[in-house]
Design brief:
This protein folds into three domains: 12-206 and 370-451, Ribonuclease Z/Hydroxyacylglutathione hydrolase-like (Metallo-beta-lactamase, Chain A); 211-358, Rossmann fold (3-Layer(aba) Sandwich), CATH 3.40.50; 467-555, Roll (Ubiquitin-like (UB roll)), CATH 3.10.20.580. The protein is globular, with a radius of gyration of 29 Å. Helix 4 (101-113) crosses helix 8 (260-271), helix 5 (181-190) packs across helix 11 (375-385) and helix 14 (498-518) crosses helix 15. The strands form five sheets. It has an eight-stranded mixed sheet. The protein has a seven-stranded mixed sheet with strand order 9-10-11-12-13-19-20. The chain starts with 11 loop residues before the first strand and ends in a 9-residue tail after the last strand. 30% of the residues lie in helices and 25% in strands. The chain has 564 residues and is α/β, with parallel strands linked by helices.
């Protein structure tokens, strides 16, 4: 959508294109003086509505149509829900990228894997300021579960915006910088027109805790384990990696990293000097040489992803790594809403093999702390910064509304809960939603990107519930069936023998064809459609479902022999 009546050149606007109705898929846009600034471009997990799809991305059509006005894209940190879509979508808008050193290192590796080598990357140190078009942006360090995470103070001629990114108030982070009270108080003194804030834990009372607590809890669990230990986590949680490595050192174990995304993150962390004090990790190829009681495996798959290392290990399909009875798997991550079923599938596969499974909330000590602020921390941030308006993002509707209610309780003058595609005018005048732009999702189908509402996905979803019937046969010019009818039935049963259902369908087809033969002559396509409609009606009456039904009819025309 190009500049239109919603976006005036002398205004300041915020447009969330993803992340304001779901967890993940974050993509936000700011517009000032007719120039665009994008913040984050992440992926999310697909659910049962998208059969055969694992990953969802934001649709960047709005940015594509305004690419000449797009002055840059900032990535606040290296979590997949903020960085994961960049390598898939960058070629559609080709703008400069801005990130702190660790985030840039991760992003560069992802771009190179996608064959992109010409993206212009700007490395920004924490607390530094950079001019991007009509925006002056300061990168404010915050504590989170990945190094170099930053909030953004976005200064414009119309006022200042604080875009929080992901953060918490961890008093003793294992890696990275703290969220400093004095820094945010100073920003509040400068005046904040709007706070665009993380809502992930807006329904959770108290505080998120400290990574130091997770390090202690993991050590306590390691002491009780006898066989191999496998720990699964978000691959970008470098702080947790350090906690695991320290617990392993104290219990006399060696650490091996399993999973491509983990290797990528470890390489980036080593490049930036965050793992220099740790003992060298064991390669996947050498895991088998270690005694089980001396081994800790750090594996991908905390969300039950089907192709992840842990899921393949649980199914016995991993080429290099195996777990057996007496081993332990520790889930050191929270379940993203919607992933519970996939996670439970992995856990069930493990438990069935006699493998002990430990999850957060089942231990005396803490084995996972959230990287996102709980209610007390959000309240503290609002007291420090004193914004004129709070716009909650990064969550489902329940979290956004809870964040807004909390802000009102903190005497914030105004709150506005957005939807994806909302066009929110921040200035001049009162903050209000003035329209919307078309937005949507893309699905990663193998190596192809397709719209989330693509007919192929709609068809797959339907097939999950209705089954399939394929029929093909040949007919004469008099609509007599020639030869055998070919019939395939997928996902349908009436509880009796399958052959009985097939024979009844054959009889129904023969009856329909007899009626057609007695009537006006029909073309092949018309015959096929008549049979399809009658079959679908018959199966609905018999089975209670309307299966996807396809009928192919071929008319065999006999050629007259010419006389001699």
């Amino acid at each position: 959508m190009p500049m239109n009546r919603f976006l005036k050149k002398d205004g300041l606007y915020f447009i969330p294109l993803g992340g304001s109705e779901q967890f993940g898929i974050n993509l936000n846009v700011y517009v000032s003086e007719g120039q665009f600034l994008a913040v984050d471009c992440g992926m999310g997990f697909a659910d049962e509505r998208f059969p055969g799809i694992d990953i969802m991305l934001p649709d960047p059509a709005f940015l594509e149509e305004n690419r000449k006005k797009l002055k840059g894209m900032i990535i606040t940190h290296a979590h997949e829900d903020h960085i994961g879509a960049v390598s898939h979508l960058w070629s559609r808008f080709e703008c400069p990228l801005y990130a702190t050193p660790f985030t840039a290192a991760v992003l560069r590796k992802k771009l190179e894997e996608a064959g992109i080598y010409d993206a212009k990357m700007h490395l920004i140190e924490p607390l530094a300021e950079v001019h991007i078009g009509s925006f002056k942006v300061q990168f404010i360090p915050v504590s989170h579960s990945v190094p170099d995470s930053c909030a953004l103070m976005i200064r414009t001629v119309h006022g200042n915006i604080l875009h929080s990114g992901d953060w918490n108030l961890d008093p003793t982070p294992v890696v990275g910088l703290k969220t400093e009270e004095k820094t945010f108080r100073k920003l509040g003194e400068d005046g904040i027109l709007a706070y665009i804030g993380d809502s992930t834990n807006a329904t959770v009372r108290g505080v998120s805790g400290s990574e130091k607590d997770a390090a202690k809890g993991l050590y306590q669990e390691f002491k009780e384990c006898r066989g191999r230990i496998a720990v699964t986590l978000f691959s970008s949680n470098i702080g947790r990696m350090i906690s695991i490595a320290e617990a392993a050192r104290k219990t006399g174990r060696h650490v091996a990293v399993v999973g491509r995304s983990l290797h990528r993150m470890v390489a980036a962390a080593q490049e930036c000097g965050y793992l220099k004090d740790l003992k060298e990790f064991v390669s996947e190829e050498d895991i088998g040489y270690l005694p089980d009681e001396k081994t800790v495996l750090v594996v991908t798959g905390s969300q039950g992803e089907y192709r992840s290392a842990l899921a393949r290990i649980a199914r016995g399909e991993h080429n290099a790594v195996h777990l057996s009875k007496g081993d332990t798997v520790i889930f050191s991550a929270r379940a993203i809403p919607g992933n519970e079923r996939n996670i439970n599938t992995v856990k069930n596969n493990l438990v069935a093999q006699g493998i002990r499974v430990i999850s957060p909330g089942e231990t005396v000590g803490v084995i996972h702390v959230s990287g996102h602020p709980c209610r007390d921390e959000i309240q503290q941030m609002l007291q420090w910064t004193r914004p004129s308006c709070v716009i909650p993002v990064h969550g489902e509707r329940v979290q956004l509304e809870a964040h807004a209610a909390l802000a009102r309780g903190c005497q914030v003058p105004q709150t506005l809960v957005p939807s994806n595609g909302s066009v929110i005018r921040l200035a001049p005048g009162p903050v209000e939603e003035i329209g919307e732009v078309e937005t949507g999702l893309l699905a990663m189908d193998q190596d192809r990107l397709i719209p989330a509402d693509d007919p192929s996905i709609t068809a797959r979803r339907k097939l999950q519930y209705t089954g399939v019937v394929h029929v093909s046969f040949a007919i004469s010019s008099k609509c007599e069936i020639l030869g055998d009818i070919k019939l395939d039935i997928i996902g349908l049963s009436d509880g009796g023998p399958p052959q009985e259902l097939k024979e009844d369908i054959f009889a129904e087809i023969e009856e329909v064809m007899a009626d057609i033969a007695d009537g006006p002559r029909l073309e092949e396509k018309a015959v096929a459609e008549e049979v399809r409609i009658c079959l679908r009606r018959y199966l609905h009456n018999r089975l209670g479902v309307k299966p996807k039904t396809t009928v192919h009819v071929l008319e065999i025309r006999q050629q007259k022999r010419s006389g001699k």
